[in-house]
Every structure is written in structure tokens, then in C-alpha cells.
Write a structure and sequence with these properties.
heterodimer; A: about 150 residues; mainly beta; three-stranded antiparallel sheet; 1 helix; about 10% helix; about 35% strand; globular; B: about 375 residues; two-stranded antiparallel sheet; 15 helices; 11 strands; about 35% helix
């Protein structure tokens, strides 16, 4: 079997909380997190239940859009991207972004224009796509602004 | 009626990057036959079988059905456990529960994998959330690299410290006829090997392997009759830590910390560094050899590099880690956790040949996988109270 020619469409529900996150990013270029009423932790991606407290969450808070690099790596080995069936272009910056006001990290690409600036704690901002469709690619990548 | 449980036999295949000489069932059978010989048992003596692999690697999702010829499972109760990286360790814990329950006297536990038949990185990437995790995630190495970066930023360790771990395990592997990679490397060779994902070099990570492992557990009524020195399971623990990758506390393994605390508490171990004689850790890359012995409570946070540089985890040191060469030398994923368990058992039973640590009273084996979760077992020479 060969990769790259097959199509494997599938439906996957992101849920009410995830849907709100994507709608807000698409329409208003802002990130919405959800806060646990018990422990106060602000979750990105937003979700219906705080796993630690095991309680329902509906308290929305705007986070970011700026933040810092929580941790990161730079991917340098070639591999087949299961989403496309094609080899993923490397290198790319793989970031865990701690958006201002959030307690968990959002994974996204980090721009590698100056690799020496890509460090834990570096401040970053999102670069939004011109045409936004309500998915993770509405943000093209985060870039270091220090 | 709850029973004490012991390992009474183990078997491993020979491991290579590709085993086209056997299909999956035949590979499984190789390990099973060796475990039966080791325990001096026949298949008719086995009460139930637990089997597992990484279930979307080979493209065969019903391995429990498909492998009965090789596993010996025809007309026996066969159960599958499939938990990704931890599969082998989950199998061991599952087998322990089955025997401890008193419902099964002798259980055959099998972990296996033919990584040569899979796109490992693609398969691991698709094991994570398709919406939130898949866009940038690049399989195991990207997550581990993020952990290593977090650890270095918090505790000041460097890639040279990690390379020392890789040098250790690759040296230990030369004593293990079952290891896939049995070649010593130098610090400089590790650091000069290609960068895969900063700060992880090629020689910091595990290979892809074809292989299988089988372990036979028996209850206290029969264990001593089967085997003169059974490996008694003193305690087991399992902890999961998060849903999405970005939820992690990057730079430490909180699930390891919780498992270790539970096991030390259950068994009354006060000073694990002194009381444990050997650790077989599911350590898929060198940095984990630093981070996770800190989380296990062997040394304090930030103290692992010096502890390892001083030779304490080498053969002959205070607390040898991975006498088998560990995962960096051999990684048939669905078997890997069970190999740790089997190797720990062999150390307790005195069957570890050239890689034997002298006078092992307590050994620890672990499993690691998916949502940064940990499985852990404490093995002992003495029958637990």
C-alpha cells in the first residue's frame, strides 16, 4: 500500500466547549478558556469537566492572545504526516504555548525565523490566518516578540 | 479469596529490527515456548492467557483472536490488554490481579510487537486527540523532547548528562543476549549523532524492534512447587496524568512520583535508594534516565546527573538501572514493559547470567506511555506478608 493517495474522511465531535473556542477564534480572533469553579484552573483547550475536581465547567474567560513558550522542541526528523499521507516539512518549531491567563498549554507551530530566540519563557503572539475556518489552522503559528 | 502472586518463568525471543523469518503468531510462540520451558510447565497447565501489543501498529486489532495458535490460547480464556507504551506493564499488572483474585492459578502473559510492519511515528501520532494534538505532534519523540526541554530549564541539566545515560544503557546491553543493539558508544558519539528533535540525538533514543516476551505468574499455592526461587510481586501501581498533551507538567513525570509513593507506602520502604537493589525502567530515551529517578524518589530534583556521573546506576554501583540495556537497546513496544518485568524477575530469581546484579532482594520494573502515565511493580525474593 502507498501513502498519499488514499482519502480517509472521518467525523469527530469537538464538543460544545471546543466549538465555542473555534467559533471565537474564527469570528473574533480571540481565545476562550474555561475556568473550574472549584480549583480555579483555566483550561485550554476548553472542556466540559475539570478532571482533577470532576465538576462541570461553564465559566468562560478570555485568555491570550499573547503568551509565553511553556516548553518546545524543533522537529528535525522526516516523518509521514498521518493527516496528509505526505512527508511533513522539517524543521518546524513545536511549541506548548502558555497563553496569558491560562493554566494549561496550547500546542502550535512556532516560527523559526530566529531559532536562538525560541526558548522556554520567550513571549509569543499568534499570527492569524486571513481566511479563518473554525479549526486549529485559524492560527498559522506563534512568533517570538521579545 | 485473595492470593499472593509470583512470577515462576519468563521467556524472550531474540530481537531484531526486522524478523521476516517469523509471522506474528510464530514470534509470539517463540516467547511462549521459552517461558513454558523456564517454568517447566505445559500449555495444559495454564489457566488463562493475557496478551497485548500496540493495537494499531501491525494493522491487526484483534490480536487476542488472531494469535491463538501461537499463544496456546485455543479453548482457553484469552483476554487482550492494549495500553500503548505501557501495554507490557499493564499486562503484568492485569495478570497479577487475575492470579491475586484467586480465580486463576497460573496465568500466561504475552507482550509482542513487530514494529517493522508499522509506521510507528504515524501510528503514535494518530493515537492522540485528532483536533487538539495532531497538528504539530510528531509521535513519541516530540513529546519526549518537550519533557527534556522542560527538565533542563527547571534543573539545569544538559545534553551531556543525558548522553551519559545512553552510554550506560548501551554498555549494559552488551551483557544481554536478548538485546537488539549490543554495541558500546562514547559520549562524543551520542552528542555527534543527528539531532532528531532538540535536545534529543539519534543515540539518545530507543530503536524499533520486532520481538516478544512471555511471563508466567502463579499463586502462592503452587509457585513454590514450580520454582525454587519465585519472584514475588509485592505491589503494583498505575497512574494517569492528563487528557491533552498541553495539560502536562512538562519537565517531570508526576505519574511516576505518585506510583512510587504508593508502592513505598504499601510495602514500608523508607529509603528506596538503599532498599531497592535494581531497577528495570521503561526508559525510551536518555533524558528519562535523569528525570524519572528523581520523580521515583531515588534522588532529589536536580540531583540525578551527579548521581549518574558518579556511577551509582552502573553495574556494580549503588543501584544499577537497566542491567539489560533497557529500552534504548531494545524496544518491541507491546513487549517492552513486560520485558522490564521479566528482567526484574530474572534478577530476583538469580537467572540474569552476565547481567546479574548480586543479592537482589527488591527490584522495580516500570512501564510508560501515552498520557505520560506510569505502571510500576515491586518484585521481591521474600514472600510478602
Amino acid at each position: 500500500m502507498e501513502s498519499g493517495d488514499a482519502s480517509q474522511p472521518f467525523a469527530y465531535a469537538v464538543g460544545m466547549h471546543g466549538s465555542k473556542f473555534f467559533a471565537e477564534t474564527r469570528d473574533n480572533k480571540r481565545f476562550m478558556g474555561v475556568k473550574c469553579p472549584k480549583c480555579g484552573k483555566v483550561y485550554i483547550p476548553p472542556r466540559g469537566v475539570c478532571g482533577s475536581c470532576f465538576v462541570e465547567m461553564n465559566d468562560w474567560v478570555e485568555v491570550g492572545p499573547k503568551g509565553v513558550i511553556g516548553t518546545f522542541t524543533i522537529l528535525r526528523f522526516a516523518f509521514i504526516d498521518p493527516e496528509t499521507g505526505h512527508q511533513k516539512p522539517v524543521p518546524y518549531g513545536y511549541g506548548f504555548i502558555k497563553l496569558d491567563g491560562a493554566d494549561t498549554l496550547l500546542q502550535h507551530y512556532i516560527d523559526l525565523e530566529d531559532e536562538s530566540k525560541v526558548k522556554i519563557g520567550a513571549r509569543v503572539e499568534p499570527v492569524f490566518a486571513q481566511e479563518r475556518k473554525g479549526n486549529t489552522r485559524d492560527v498559522e503559528y506563534f512568533r517570538v516578540i521579545d | 479469596m485473595a492470593k499472593r502472586v509470583a512470577i515462576v518463568g519468563t521467556g524472550q525471543t531474540f530481537h531484531k529490527s526486522h524478523r521476516p523469518d517469523v509471522n506474528g503468531q510464530e514470534l509470539i510462540n517463540e516467547a511462549v515456548q521459552r517461558a513454558l520451558i523456564d517454568a517447566n510447565l505445559k500449555m495444559k497447565d495454564i489457566s488463562a492467557i493475557l496478551i497485548g501489543n500496540m493495537d494499531h501498529f501491525e494493522g491487526i486489532n484483534y490480536v487476542d483472536c488472531w494469535s491463538v495458535d501461537g499463544s496456546g490460547g485455543v479453548m482457553k480464556p484469552v483476554i487482550k490488554i492494549t495500553t500503548g507504551g505501557t501495554t507490557g506493564a499493564s499486562l503484568a499488572i492485569g495478570g497479577y490481579h487475575m492470579v491475586a483474585s484467586g480465580m486463576f492459578e497460573k496465568v500466561l502473559i504475552i507482550g509482542w510487537e513487530k514494529n517493522s510492519e508499522s509506521d510507528t511515528t504515524g501510528a503514535i501520532t494518530t493515537a492522540f486527540d485528532p483536533i487538539w494534538d495532531r497538528q504539530v505532534f510528531a509521535g513519541a519523540i516530540s513529546g519526549l523532547a518537550a519533557e527534556a526541554q522542560g527538565y533542563m530549564a527547571r534543573f539545569g541539566a544538559c545534553d551531556r548528562d543525558a548522553a551519559r545515560v545512553s552510554v550506560r544503557d548501551r554498555k549494559h546491553a552488551t551483557n544481554n543476549p536478548h538485546a537488539q543493539l549490543r554495541k558500546e558508544v562514547t559520549l562524543e558519539e551520542v552528542l555527534a549523532s543527528p539531532m532528531l528533535a532538540d535536545p534529543i540525538h539519534l543515540l539518545d533514543v530507543c530503536p524499533r524492534t520486532d520481538g516478544a516476551c512471555a511471563v508466567i505468574m502463579a499463586n502462592e499455592d503452587v509457585a513454590g512447587k514450580i520454582c525454587s526461587v519465585p519472584d514475588w510481586i509485592w505491589a503494583t501501581a498505575a497512574r494517569h496524568s492528563y487528557t491533552y498533551l498541553g495539560d502536562g507538567d512538562w519537565g517531570r513525570l508526576t505519574s511516576m512520583e505518585k506510583c512510587a509513593k504508593e508502592i513505598w507506602k504499601k510495602t514500608g520502604i523508607k529509603e528506596p535508594r538503599k532498599e531497592i537493589d535494581v531497577i528495570e525502567m521503561y526508559q525510551p530515551y536518555s533524558f528519562a534516565g535523569l528525570i524519572w529517578i528523581e520523580d521515583m524518589g531515588i534522588v532529589g530534583h536536580g540531583e540525578a546527573p551527579q548521581y549518574i556521573w558518579d556511577g551509582n546506576t552502573d553495574m556494580g554501583g549503588e543501584l544499577p538501572v537497566n542491567p539489560s540495556g533497557g529500552v534504548i537497546a531494545c524496544n518491541p513496544i507491546g513487549a517492552t514493559g513486560l520485558i522490564r518485568c521479566a528482567e526484574a524477575a530474572m534478577q530476583v530469581m538469580g537467572k540474569a547470567d552476565a547481567r546479574q546484579v548480586p543479592d537482589v532482594n527488591f527490584a522495580v520494573s516500570t512501564g510508560f506511555g501515552g498520557c505520560m502515565w506510569t505502571d510500576m511493580l515491586l518484585h521481591g525474593k521474600r514472600k510478602p506478608n
